[in-house]
Q: What sequence folds into this?
């Protein structure tokens, strides 16, 4: 069981080391850390460098207190900006500094300050007020990195108010960055923000496509709203969020893909659309021109991988899958697999894409074979023998290509597929051995399946 201590306990031990054992500050800190780690204490939330003032407070505590006083007395903005810079610099050091700032009340101070300055900005939209709001938003973003629990309903209301009323793109970018930080690993924040009808704001922001930075941050917020990464919540609403965002944004994302076909923005668009295609009808509504896009970005793995994942998502709809294959994408996919064979992530994504396109479609498997997919798949399995995702997705691709068209077996056998799969079974048999054996079975290779349940000859009571 992991043990934790308070910051005060840690500080006291360090001070004792200095006063009682005549250690230097560095020696005292090193000794204290070693002592606590030997006892199994988790020090991730402890400020170890002890940036102490002449008194008993940490610099971060002094800064928060000064900010509070300045906000109450309404002193000049320059003094406030200096303290914000200090607070931001301290919070950037590590999570322990951010936790300390949060406990000292930094979030409420910054939230109140943002609300006040936002009202001032709406009355007088000058550069000084704009820069001040951006500074506070950035400070909030840094403070809440890895501790999104600080967000409350007041903060969500301010987010929504800014998105509803502000046209300044720099302020919008800073606000979107704050929202993204609050959505990471926090299901309740995502649900609260989504409930503010943020979808309408995101749709409007996507229309400002000439500002690539704003578009990139908008796409990131969309993806963050569809995450399911909060282990504290048993059932989240990632699917519901993705569905509702997809209903409103799929066509808009299609249009944006036509405008932006070069990295890095095209990769973000592909990732975002993939995240939203969670239902059969949404796949049918999406119409990305992927064959031409892939051909134009042939050498870029940062485009090939997300494009392959998007095709995999679209192939969940059988009608869409057939349209994709008819569009002439098969030779492009095979060529990409050969081109990016040294990249395990891209290779795994393309193999999964081939698997999805060939599922329940014998004619598709035949087209892939005719375009040299068998050679490329076997080569991928032999190159990335230690990469589980490549081996597993390769097994699926082989199985789906031959399951309904056994005439392909001879081609794979000639290329040494049986040896490659047996080697994969030796390494990953415990993880996905059934998938490997299923591929061997459909290839008509020698394979022995284990009986999962065996009767013991015991009479069952009636």
A:
């Amino acid at each position: 069981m992991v043990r934790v201590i308070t910051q005060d306990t840690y500080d006291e031990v360090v001070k004792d080391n200095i006063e009682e054992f005549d250690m230097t500050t560095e020696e005292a800190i090193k000794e204290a850390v070693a002592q606590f780690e030997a006892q199994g204490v988790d020090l991730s939330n402890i400020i170890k460098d002890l940036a102490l003032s002449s008194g008993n407070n940490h610099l971060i505590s002094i800064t928060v207190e000064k900010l509070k006083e300045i906000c109450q007395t309404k002193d000049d903005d320059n003094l406030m900006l200096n303290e914000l810079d200090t607070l931001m610099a301290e919070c950037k050091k590590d999570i322990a500094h951010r936790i300390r700032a949060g406990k000292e009340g930094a979030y409420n101070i910054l939230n109140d300050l943002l609300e006040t300055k936002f009202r001032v900005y709406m009355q007088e939209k000058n550069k000084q007020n704009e820069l001040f709001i951006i500074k506070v938003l950035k400070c909030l973003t840094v403070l809440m990195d890895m501790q999104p629990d600080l967000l409350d309903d007041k903060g969500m209301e301010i987010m929504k108010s800014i998105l509803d009323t502000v046209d300044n793109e720099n302020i919008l970018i800073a606000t979107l960055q704050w929202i993204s930080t609050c959505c990471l690993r926090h299901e309740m924040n995502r649900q609260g923000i989504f409930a503010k009808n943020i979808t309408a704001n995101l749709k409007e922001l996507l229309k400002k496509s000439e500002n690539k930075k704003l578009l990139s941050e908008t796409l990131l917020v969309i993806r963050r709203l569809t995450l399911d990464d909060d282990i504290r919540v048993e059932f989240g609403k990632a699917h519901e969020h993705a569905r509702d965002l997809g209903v409103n944004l799929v066509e808009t994302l299609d249009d944006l893909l036509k405008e932006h076909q070069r990295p890095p923005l095209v990769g973000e668009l592909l990732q975002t659309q993939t995240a939203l295609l969670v239902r059969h009808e949404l796949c049918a509504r999406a119409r990305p021109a992927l064959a031409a896009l892939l051909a134009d970005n042939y050498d870029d793995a940062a485009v090939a991988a997300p494009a392959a994942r998007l095709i995999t998502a679209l192939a969940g709809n059988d009608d869409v899958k057939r349209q994709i294959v008819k569009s002439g994408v098969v030779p492009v996919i095979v060529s990409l697999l050969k081109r990016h064979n040294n990249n395990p992530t891209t290779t795994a994504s393309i193999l999964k894409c081939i698997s999805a396109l060939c599922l329940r479609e014998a004619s598709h498997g035949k087209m892939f074979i005719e375009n040299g997919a068998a050679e490329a798949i076997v080569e991928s399995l032999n190159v990335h023998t230690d990469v589980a995702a490549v081996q597993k997705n390769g097994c699926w691709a082989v199985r789906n290509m031959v399951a309904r068209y056994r005439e392909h077996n001879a081609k794979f056998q000639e290329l040494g597929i049986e040896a490659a799969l047996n080697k994969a079974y030796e390494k990953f048999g415990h993880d996905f051995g059934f998938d490997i054996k299923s591929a061997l079975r459909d290839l008509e290779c020698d394979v022995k399946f284990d009986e999962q349940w065996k009767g013991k000859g015991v009479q069952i009571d009636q």
Notes: DSSP finds 25 helices and two strands in the chain.
